[in-house]
């Protein structure tokens, strides 16, 4: 019998001593101590930074920084940036354009809100700001899409008739960029203003959610237009299922067309309760028009609306027409709070989402990753790690990598109260290294990726500072860091 001399809690040591006394186990004699104390165990070596500044000292500031420099300081105690101030520049979508990047934003000057697009050079040390007009109401930043030399914005606005989505082309010139206004798309007035925009080789597609008076729930709508002629827009097409209440759409270009996805929930009793009793219509008959007393406004949403919410996706052709029925790509019993999608280098749809089936006011720390292959095969992975914390997942894909062997897809998790975490993803959406913070990123937001460089945005009081970082994957995660 051998005595175990490993360290143990106090109560375990007492039990072990009693057993030794009962069986007569003799303690091993202590080994002679060396004359020179052994050196202390080496301290754990900090992981090498995965990200560095691509062009140290170069950045572009969108908006006006404070003259007294009050917005320049970082919190040295926790390594976080200062949060953005009220009425500060609000960024929309960022994407590679030309040798640099393009970023849409809202800027408030003199009490007026203006939509702008910033065109940045290759080093993000200089750029030009293009104004798209003064907006009304409480708009979201413009959507933005690019293809080759074309750059198109979808601007949210409001008039007396309701919500508007305005198309505008931004065309760089030798002196200054020009803006060519396109068609205006009328949107039903509701609480949601989520929309998306993408360009293909020939046509572009706009996607948004709106309230359907006929169906008594939210639907996902698309319309397409010629890439070089924004004045001619097709009629609206509903791409979501009649049996589902749909909202918060996203769209991403894929070879031969587009991917579209949104959050779905069962329409069920909500749609039936609003329909007066009547004889069942014949098959194929048009739906009855709403009564004169039906409100043109969508009902006010509940403060807390719990229930199963899943992500549905459908492939669209080059004209933005669905080529199959939408299918759930997350479990239908999920409680999706927020999601993101992007198209991988091989045309695979990559998506991530945060599930929230906990009590109101709390949030799970898990991040889910998944992919949909061109043949329709769905894979899902769970990143079960205490590290992610709160925040919105974002997927960044490098369509034109400088080094084909480098990681082309990254997952970023930004938060207003914690450091931004990021990790490299494989082709099927699996995590290649750890989802961890980086000193050079701190709590900034990574918003675009091209040629191996990530566009990083930091709040600077009323302004936003944009710069570039280069990142390489770190060591592979432990086997139990991610599970199917």
β-strand amount: 35-45%
Note the gap between the termini.
43 Å
Question: Can you count the helices?
Answer: 2
Largest sheet, described in full?
5 strands, antiparallel
CATH superfamily: Prolyl oligopeptidase, N-terminal domain
As a percent range, the share of helical residues equals: under 10%
Uncertain residue segments: 1-46, 270-304, 480-484
The overall average pLDDT, rounded, is: 80
**CATH C-level category:** Mainly Beta
* Secondary-structure-derived class: mainly beta
Backbone shape: globular
By CATH, the architecture is named: 7 Propeller
At the fold tier of CATH, the topology name is Methylamine Dehydrogenase, Chain H
* Strand segment count: 31
> Compute the gyration radius: what is it?
27 Å
Number of domains: 1
Indicate the multimeric state.
single chain
Explain this structure to me?
The chain has 484 residues and is mostly beta strands. It has one domain: Prolyl oligopeptidase, N-terminal domain (Methylamine Dehydrogenase, Chain H, 7 Propeller), CATH 2.130.10.120. The chain is 4% helix and 43% strand. It has helices at 10-23, 268-273; strands spanning 51-53, 60-62, 90-97, 100-109, 112-120, 127-135, 143-147, 150-159, 162-171, 178-187, 195-199, 203-212, 217-226, 229-233, 237-238, 244-254, 257-266, 310-316, 327-328, 336-343, 349-355, 367-372, 378-383, 392-397, 409-414, 421-425, 436-437, 445-450, 453-460, 463-471, 482-483. Strands 1, 2, 28, 29 and 30 form a five-stranded antiparallel beta sheet that branches. Strands 11, 12, 13, 14 and 15 form a five-stranded antiparallel beta sheet that branches. It has a five-stranded antiparallel beta sheet with strand order 20-21-22-23-31, with no helix packed on it. Strand 25 and strand 26 form a beta hairpin. The longest helix is centred in the N-terminal third of the chain and has 14 residues, at 10-23. It is globular and about 55 Å long.
